[in-house]
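We treat protein structure as text, and this decision shapes the records that our systems exchange. Because each token names a local backbone shape, the row as a whole describes the fold. For reference, a complete record is included directly beneath this paragraph.
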Amino acid sequence: MSASPLVGWDEVAAVAPDGLAVVDCGGRFVRVNRAGAAMCGAREEADLLGTTSPFTLGEGASGECRAGLLEERSDESIVHWEPASGTRREFAYRARGLPDNPKLMVVSFRDVTAAWHRQRRIAAIAQTSIALASEGSLGSILDSVARQIVQTDGLAGVQILILDSTGRELRLMGSAGLRHWDAFLDRLLECRDRGARLCMLDTLKERKPIVVPHRWAQIREDPTWEPLHAYLGELNWDSFVSVPLMARGRPEGVLNAYFAPGQEIGGRTLEFLAAMAEQAALAVDYATLLQREREGARRNERQRLARDLHDSIVQQVFSIGMQANAAAVLGARGGPVPAEAVQQFADEIGALSRTVLADLRAMVHELRPSSSTRLGLEDAVSALVKSTENRTGLSIRLLCGADLDAVERDLAEDVYRIVAEAIHNAVKHAEATSVTIRLGVRDHALTASIRDDGRGLAASGGRGAVPEGKGSRTTGSTGGQGYGLTTMRERAERWGGTMRIRSGKSGTAVRVVIPLPVRVTESPPADPESRSAPTAVPLREPADPVRSGS
């Protein structure tokens, strides 16, 4: 009497926790169990029969094989499955051929979407930690953080805004998924003035994440958000989350996440955003400490220049005084003074005077920005232009627009340095005969352009040739970029700005655009410690949930 099987396919397949399927040589489902059909988004097993499976079969086809961060390398392959309705899933599977029918294969598979998602989040946090140790600017680091979030969780977009040193103004310093637009903060401020409430201000005040489901539908129907309807409408998004950047117990800014339609905002998602916000806060805190260190180095350098001024120029002036005293002694004798002696005194005093004047001009230009920018950016650049024309004979045309006096002193100093470096390049490397400088504030952004008629970057290799290219923050290749151009770029990026360079046989044009900050408090804090609790501008409370804003 032959032994009969204890259980059949139907019994085993019905209770199997993983997916089981039989697939033909064309990759189509022949049989599939209940768990497998559910994973594939089908209501019944019969709905999948005859349809193409996601599994890569055949000799040598092993699919994409990955091991977990702390796991041994697995013999499972990974595939993606996009059902007709629902979100994309990831399956880990193994396939074996049937001995009695080589045209059929048995596949066991399981849903690893959540597991791989967790591993990608761990990898994103690790890669962000590596980025923090890089030598990139704060803007490039925060852009990297935003990209990691978008790529890992498939979000529609991410923005990272930071508070300035006073805790009263916000700057957009990192983004991914959204088009770079210099006027974004200006339009956001306009929405607030029209009555829209900004949830990120509540995030700063309450120091906790704020979740707004179906936010885009609300904003789209709210007329107070009209200035941003077109811009936010470019993004395919639905819900909104704002997470505070906390460092040393105080808010450093906010991370705004725009979720694609159908994406759920669960506890693990918020934990991931909070972890990435912590990484961004560390980057901001480190940049703040680094800036303080650089400011200390600037003070030390100015003190060094002051010592040099005393030690070198004072000695030369003393020599001029000695020559004048000697001439006075000769004159006091009452007798005739030989022409040769007078000529010798005149030549020595003239040479010393020219040396002193050259040294003074060089040192004053090193010390000028911190003092002259207190009088305003326009006055500082005007003084620089006059001094440069007197020293070099270069013809410089300066055109200044309105509202330059409203530019804060630290920003004015960096823009002054950018302009000074561009003029220096025009004089030293481009052999230019004329330069045109334009400064102005337009659409809540400070714009500076410097154009010369020199040889261009390619012809003056010492300048560090930078051809026209692509880049969200700086146009050009970094391979041959000189130190001066790198410093100019870093000064622009420090304020969330961009620098673009165009160069050719007719000369070089440098254009810098820096968005001005949006004020988020009514008055400055009473003391620096009060930065830990920034107060949002009082806004009219909305009459309905539609007015909860981004």
Summary: Residues 458 and 465 are 5 Å apart (CA to CA). Residues 267-332 form the longest helix (66 residues).
